[in-house]
Fold this sequence. Notes:
There is one protein chain. By secondary structure, this protein is α/β, with parallel strands linked by helices. The chain has one domain (2-312): 4-Layer Sandwich (Purple Acid Phosphatase, chain A, domain 2). It has 7 helices and 15 strands. The strands form 3 sheets. The chain has a 7-stranded mixed β-sheet. It has a 6-stranded mixed β-sheet with strand order 4-5-7-9-11-10, with helices on one face. Strand 4 and strand 5 form a beta hairpin. It starts with a strand and ends in a 14-residue tail after the last strand.
Amino acid sequence: MFRLAHLSDIHLGPLPDLTLRELASKRVTGYVNWHRNRRLAMFGTTLIDLVTDMKAQVPDHVAVTGDLVNLATKKETLAARVWLEELGTPANVSVVPGNHDAYVPGALKRSCEEWKPYLTGDNPLTAVSQGFPYIRVRGKVALLGVCSAEATAPFFATGAFNRGQAVALARMLETCRATGHFRVVMIHHPPISGAAAWSKRLIGKQFFSKVMREVGAELVLHGHTHLDTLYWLDGPEGKVPVVGVPSASQNPGDPEKPAARYNLFEIDGEPGAWSLTQRERGHRADGTGIDWIRERQLLSDGRAIKARPIIDAPKAEEPKLVMFGS
């Protein structure tokens, strides 16, 4: 059995001191938002406690689906590299960038350069500088990272998935299907219509849906919304689960956002008969510690089970939306 942990939307804080030059851009709106909102909602030991708990579960691999930083300053990207090194080795942690990692023009390139060992595929010829997607094979599991991050105008947090990435991803997924691997696709923005506000949507999600319909995958992981969500996309052999996770830094007590969590997936079986169980673990809503939130089986004998719950914690929250199709 392979155990895959899933974290997202780290938003490392606090913000460093910014120069006037750094503020003379979209960063000024993010700076104000941090001090008005996120400084209070994402500060303290929440992230540290969550990561410590996750490590105690001894996952075989960790997937981080973006937004490691807030305004993508040089100091932040350097700090995020240190955080990644504390999280695990590049061989054991796979990352895709989020919109905050590409906050202003040029930021995405710097982020990818700083975190390159965590965003590079197994083939040394497929370096980050040559673009996404990348692929890593760990035992029976193939992890494929795509990039939806791009710099946007103020008050926008959209992502993009273009035809070029779609073609490359389809080829990789087809190869992994032929070799009998369990395929996990990592992306920051949810590739689902209506999953995020219009100003935060994924542009080009129709290309992603087409890849799923024609080639498929066993699991898609995303972040961005700071919500625990479960959607389904059509695949050639059944439904493909698309799972989101709350921010790993969200303090308990916010009425609109769940407290920090991570997903722990247990992958077993063989091609055509895969088993996939999702366990959510994180901070209790009342701030009294970390506990299991929900456990549900997503795939059994290679077939989607429509999120049949196995157990539910007494205070478990239902996912915001369960949707079939794109």
